Amino acid sequence: MDITVREQGKVNVLVLKGRLDLANAGVLKSTVKSLLEQDKILMHFNMLNVDFINSSGLGALVSMMKEIRVYKGRLTLSHLAPYVHEIFEITQLSNVFEIYGNEEEAVNSHTPAPMV
Amino acid sequence: MVRDKIGDLEEKIFDLEKKLESKREATRDIANIASVITSLLDIESVLAAAMEIGIRQMDGEVGAVLQIINDEPVVKVSWGVDSTILDTLIYKDNLDIVRYCLNRRETVFDNGHDGLFPGNITVRNFVCTPILSKEKVIGVMVIFNKDAINGFVYQDIQTLEMISKFASVAIENSNLLEESLEKQKLEQELDLARQVQATFLPDEVDIKGLKITSLYIPARQVGGDYYDLIPLSEKKLFFLIGDVTSKGVPAALVMASVYSIIRSYINSGETIDVTILMQQLNNTLCNDIIKSHGMFITLFMAFIDLDSGQVQYCNGGHPPPFFYRSSTTETTPLKCGGPLVGQFAGTEYKAIRIEIAPGDRIFCYTDGLIEAANEEDELYGLRRLERFFRDNVNLDTDRFSSDVKTEIYNFSCKGKAEAVDDYTTLVIDFTGQDQDSETYDFQYKSDLKSLEHMHGDIDTIAESHNIAENVVHPFRVAVSEAVTNAIVHAHNGDSSKIIRFAVDLNKERIVAVIIDEGPDRGNMPVDNADPVGHPDAEGGRGLGLIRRLSDEASFTKIPRGGMEVKIVKNLS
Fold first, then answer.
1. Which of B131, B94, B132, B89 is nearest to B110 (CA)?
2. Assigned domain for A69 exists
3. Considering the domain boundaries, does residue A116 fall inside one?
4. In 3D, which of A59, A51, A91, A81 has the Cα closest to residue B458?
5. Which candidate, B115, B130, B184, B275, has a CA 20 to 30 Å from the CA of B431?
6. Residues of chain A whose C-beta is under 8 A from some C-beta in B?
7. Over the stretch B132-150, which tens digit does the pLDDT of each residue have?
8. Which domain covers residue A101, as residue numbers?
9. Contact across the interface for B541 and A91, Cβ inside 8 Å
């Protein structure tokens, strides 16, 4: 799995590429862990190029979400491919994760809109 | 006075002690006799020991032990007398001592006097006792000339009868031993015959367009049933089913003949004419040992050619197999041929060709099946079998065969009726040539890299068969769950274990089978597995996903440990 990290303001955007399963979950988890330790607690996963996820990948996402919560941070997801989205639906994790249609919406959601 | 009384008492005590001591000695002797005689394993030694002990205990001069063979006493051990002397010792009722004793079936003794008999031998006294086994006289012991004034006393008779009893026990033991050795030898022979027979039974054959299930139920003895399946090419199969009219080693020998005659015929040419083969087989067997031993074999043989869509068969006196034609749903018996094989040299057998089409079935059996009896001695019979065949013709060959077995088991009162002979069935389905069916077989080392290989292999299959992504994706997820489970849960990270991943694909569906090496993970909660877990749970969604994403899924424990997961996904 390829992971590119970039910062959008306070939000750390991780662009993921490849399969999210048992073989790849470890890399992602350790990337997230090191960001958290640097107090980078707002996270977004752009999953446009994730073409496969199974229960091991979902388990890793749940574990990372719990870890981020411990740091009082937040995790959003975007660009779920249809077949990947279906797996979220079946497991009803689509109700558990904050899933956005695109990266911009998701990143914006991390920054409260200025009061008018 | 007192002193006298004490003296008397002392004398009495002394007497009693002497008697007690002699009693003890006698008991010791008897115990010795028992242990010596009963430890011997063959009749000759038992009789010899009985003689020696008898003479010694009795203080006799001469004696003999005779065994009853064909109702006649035969001297087995002689101690100074032989049969010519014994025969001349006519005692009473015009019988010699031995025969007189045999007649009375009890101990006879006489302390007569000099000249009890005329002739050279001086018989002063004798005792003669029968050796009985199960009420039957099996021998006689006779001892002459006890060296004592009184001759034989009551105690001697008792001792001799005791020796005779021990001898009889020992003889019975030795008979039992001989029988059991005989039985053991027979068992070994049968075992060998069984092994020989097993080597004649064919391996499973895998011919596209045919589905074959055989069922071989041997009797406790080595049976006479025999079948063979010989693939000649990818589309040609020769098969036969037969029943030799004997069992055990002779049956195995006949099978060996048939086996080799058929193989050598098949190896000699490319095409098979079952008429010629049957005639050759018949003539060879007629000249062989089997005719002279009154044996014969019933034999049905057929040659299936899927290229021409025909089956040529010849039936040599075998119960006619059923042929089910799916286009007409009719069942006909395959009778054409000739008489049983190995009895009538020069017989001309007929063969016939039948057209076959996908959906057709041939069902062969041996007569043990229709001769299975229930507790009322009623036979299962052809009529029941035919009805069963028609009623269950839609079951696949495996299921049909196992149902036949259950049917016969139930009919014969769950095997209680003991009247179930060996039987064999052969079910052959013509499934049609499924050109599009393809199978793949992969093996992975049980580590995380295997997930990579699995994806690559699924990609290859999906591309080469143009499988739509909406089928491949759920199939891929389901398979990945099974493979991950094997790595993590079954093999617990042990990368020396192997995961087998087989795929079978036809026009309608794609089937994956994932097999791990165990150990047994116990009962998996497959039926109620739910892909929806607790939102915070990191695991436990895999089985639910397999169920949800496949059209059919099964989890079967493998007897040697491990699990077989089958995932079926319809292509449309």
1. B89
2. yes
3. no
4. A51
5. B275
6. 19, 21-23, 52-56, 58-60, 62-63, 66, 83, 86-87, 90-93, 95-96
7. 887 788 889 999 888 777 7
8. 2-110
9. yes
Q: Tell which phi-psi region holds residue B377, choosing left (phi > 0), alpha (psi between -120 and 50) or beta.
A: left
Residue B329 · residue B337 · CB < 8 Å: no
What tokens were used for B103?
A: 């007649």
CB proximity B539 to A under 8 Å: yes
Indicate yes or no: CB of B531 within 8 angstroms of CB of A90: yes
Q: Which two tokens stand for residue A104?
A: 């911009």
Q: Is residue A73 a part of any domain in this protein?
A: yes
Nearest by CB to A91, which of B484, B488, B532?
A: B532
Task: For chain B, list the domains and their CATH numbers.
Answer: 28-176 (3.30.450.40), 201-430 (3.60.40.10), 438-570 (3.30.565.10)
Provide the residue count of chain B.
Answer: 572
**Contact (CB<8Å) A90/B545:** yes
- Integer Cα distance of B223 and B251 in angstroms: 7
Token pair, residue B237, equals: 């199969």
Distance, CA of B569 to CA of B572 (rounded, Å): 9
Contacts of B477 in chain A (CB under 8 A): 52-54, 87
Closest Cα in chain B to A26: B448
Residue of A84, A70, A81, A82 whose CA lies nearest to A33? A70
CATH number of the domain that residue A7 is part of: 3.30.750.24
The yes/no answer to whether this complex scores an ipTM above 0.85 is yes
The tally of domains found in chain A comes to 1
Asked if residues B252 and B190 have their Cβ atoms less than 8 Å apart, the reply is no
Q: pLDDT for B268-320, tens place per residue? A: 666 788 999 999 899 988 887 666 667 789 999 999 999 889 999 999 999 99
Q: In angstroms, what separates the C-alpha of A109 from chain B's closest C-alpha?
A: 22
Is-contact B311 B246, C-beta < 8 A?
Answer: no
Chain A, chain B: beta-carbon pairs less than 8 Å apart: 72
The two three-digit tokens of residue B346, written as one number: 């020069």
> Coil, strand, or helix at residue B408?
helix
Nearest CA in chain B to A61: B538
Q: Best residue in A1, A20, A24, A54 to probe B by mutation, most B CBs within 10 Å?
A: A54
Mutate: best of A21, A50, A98, A99, partner B, most B CBs <10 A: A21
**For residue B498, what pLDDT is reported?**
92
Nearest C-alpha of chain B: how many angstroms from A75? 14
Tokens 């007398």 appear where?
A: B81
CA-CA-CA-CA torsion for B85, B91, B95, B97, nearest 10 degrees?
Answer: -60
Parts of chain B with a pLDDT under 70: 1, 23-31, 113-121, 219-222, 247, 268-270, 289-293, 414-421, 433-436, 520-527, 559-560
Q: Is A115 part of a structural domain of the chain?
A: no
Contact assessment for residue B161 and residue B131, using Cβ atoms and an 8 Å cutoff: no
